[in-house]
Amino acid sequence: MSDLTSLTLTRLRDELAAGRTTAAQAVDACLDRIAATEPRLSALLAVPADEARAQAQALDAAGPDPKQPLWGVPLAIKDVICTKNLRTTCGSRILENFVPPYDAFVIKKLREAGAVIVAKANMDEFAMGSSTENSAFAPTRNPWDTERVPGGSSGGSAAAVAARQAFGALGTDTGGSIRQPASFCGCVGLKPTYGRVSRFGCVAYGSSLDQIGPLARTVGDCAAILQAIAGHDPADSTSADRPVSDYQAAIQSRTDLGGLRIGLPAEYWGEGLDPEVEAACRGAIAAAEKLGATPVPVALPHTRYAVATYYIVAMAEASSNLARFDGVRYGFRDTEAQELIDMYVASRSKGFGDEVQRRIMLGTYVLSAGYYDAYFRKAAQVRRLIRQDFLTAFASCDVIAGPASPVPAWKLGSLTADPLQMYLMDIFTISLNLAGLPGLCLPAGLGRDSGLPVGLQLFGPAFSEDLLLSVAAQLESALPGLGEPRGLA
Amino acid sequence: MKISPEKALAIATLARLEITPGQAATLGAQMDDILGYMDKLNELDTAEVEPMYTPVDQPGALRVDEVTTEFPRSEILRNAPETDGQYFIVPRIV
Fold first, then answer.
1. Which residues lie below 8 Å from residue A367, measured CB to CB, with a gap of 6+?
2. For A390, how many CA atoms within 13 A lie in the half-sphere containing its CB?
3. Rounded to the nearest 5°, which phi and psi values hold at A438?
């Protein structure tokens, strides 16, 4: 075998289970690949090599366990998810030295499933951004073109998966932060239904929007990771107490897309869409038709209000959530301040980056007396209209499809001076978080001019992850693969 | 202009952030730009629409309230900038 990292996660899992390779070999293959690619990417914030090797050796000593579906599989974890005794920074100076005393629910589940954490992945500070340029440590670069962004905020997770630094990764998606970087880096990313995956131990940004989900190189790999992390958790009051489907079985039970109605919202396929993005996504819809699916027109008429609605809700929730960073119990403290309030102010001002401070300021404003009704309450009302659009659309289709981003990956630095322009790039991903519904992004193809990956999103009704995965797996097998990222050649 | 530099400074105080007058002007202008964009929501009549604050149908499901010892005190104090081994230490308040 030339390089273990060229295997998919599910294939590696089978090789490990059959004893044809070892957990230690899998971990070493990732560490070698990280050493070879990381200087050009900055996808990772920590690589706990010794711990990963020790864990792999322990697994190998005990032997493969059929009850551990991710036995020996190396994964990368977005650095917003708490890992016991392993630094968790959220991409922020304020948490630069924070070492969680506990594992997040999803980490506990991954460890129970036998997975090995080989890296903590870079991200926009506190998951606020669409390009991973807001990381306090370094901007991550896109494996397809290292002059371009990987998307964000889970840009480190997506770049790590695309560059084969790990067999899969966890990201978080508050307004597209799994799906958009999956699109930019040419991987598969799934944002589960709000409540499907526990957020316990995930540092909160927008609590009514945040969801943890997988990024991986194939649909089947995403299914395997989701299977391990989904389920009820009493420690998260928004966690859904309902059974988890067998995602692999759902994928295997579908052999075509006969009878499937794919809703194409006019609002996602018209004005402002880059021609090569449109061409690649239309190509994917044509492939779905060949498999028996029927495209049907649907309307999501409040899409044009989604960016404004989303940013009011997200910033308001962020300003509340980030109030906990005060230099008392954890995180950076400015030691020059003599009095308590001055210490809070100095610690926060020196610890948070510009975009985080901007969002806290805007969130504070929209929640403040006199503006709450005009902004926050108004946005919450429009949020219901946005959700109603989806419920209406799903009365006439089974899934909804559209591009994940109006453009392919842009160049580093090209949007950083104008925050609003960067926010507007989120137009196709944020409505789903407002509605709390699941969405999956898979590679549709490469842009005909840019040669950059283009992702197609599939949206489904609440808790339809099995449907989304099975449809995506059909499409994946019908579409040509993207091949190796060209920026690393 | 909604956010004058003075207003930006006042919001920063509420948010426990410190910004320079120069930053106040830049931030104020950016906030103006963003809030101006958000005003497009006023095109919609939402008088009869119930606000939606969470996607969860029945929020507030609480787990059983049981006393447990989840962490030793030293674990919780480990990340604090200053402790005396028993408590978090903060600068003087009054």
1. A316, A319, A320, A376
2. 26
3. -85, 150
In a domain, B18, yes or no: yes
Number of domain units in chain B: 1
Q: Provide, as residue numbers in chain A, all residues whose Cβ is less than 8 Å from the Cβ of B12.
A: 361
CB atoms near residue A17 (< 10 Å): 17
Residue A404 neighbours by CB under 8 Å, 6+ apart: A176, A179, A180, A182, A183, A428, A429, A441, A455, A456, A457
What does pLDDT average to in each consecutive run of 10 residues of chain A (489 residues)? 87 97 98 98 98 98 97 98 98 98 98 98 98 98 98 98 98 98 98 98 98 98 98 94 97 98 96 94 98 98 97 98 97 96 97 97 95 96 98 98 98 93 94 98 97 98 98 97 94
Polymer length of chain A: 489
- Token pair recorded at residue A452: 């950059």
Determine which helix (DSSP H) or strand (DSSP E) holds A215, and give its type and residue range: strand A212-216
Longest dimension (CA), chain A: 70
Bin A85: left if φ > 0, else alpha if -120 < ψ < 50, else beta: left
Give me the sign of the Cα torsion angle A203, A343, A356, A38: negative
- B-chain residues within 8 Å CB-CB of A329? 76, 79-80, 88
According to CATH, what is the number of the domain A4-261+437-488? Answer: 3.90.1300.10
A414 touching chain B per CB within 8 A: no
Q: Which domain holds residue B33?
A: 5-43
Looking at the partner chain, which of B8, B15, B93 has a beta carbon nearest the beta carbon of A360? B15
Instruction: Please provide the DSSP assignment of A125-155 as one string.
Output: GGG--SSSTT-SS----BTTBTTB---SSSH
Residue B87 lies in a domain: no
- Are A211 and A246 in contact by the 8 Å Cβ rule? The answer is no
Beta carbons of A169 and A423 less than 8 angstroms apart: no
How many angstroms separate the CA of residue B37 from the nearest CA in chain A? Answer: 7
Q: How far is B14 from chain A, CA to nearest CA, in Å?
A: 7
CB contact under 8 A, A383 and B51: yes
A309 contacts chain B (CB < 8 A)? yes
Which residues of A are catalytic, by number?
Answer: 78, 153, 177
The single residue listed with the structure tokens 């629409």 is B49
Classify strands A261-265 and A294-298 as parallel, antiparallel or unpaired. Answer: parallel
List the helix and strand counts (H, then E) for chain A.
16, 11
Structural domain boundaries of chain A? 4-261+437-488
Q: What's the whole-model pTM score?
A: 0.97
DSSP assigned state of A86: B
A149 touches chain B (CB under 8 A): no
Interface pTM, i.e. ipTM:
0.95
Nearest CA-CA partner of B91 in A352, A330, A335:
A335
Residue B76 lies inside a defined structural domain of this protein: no
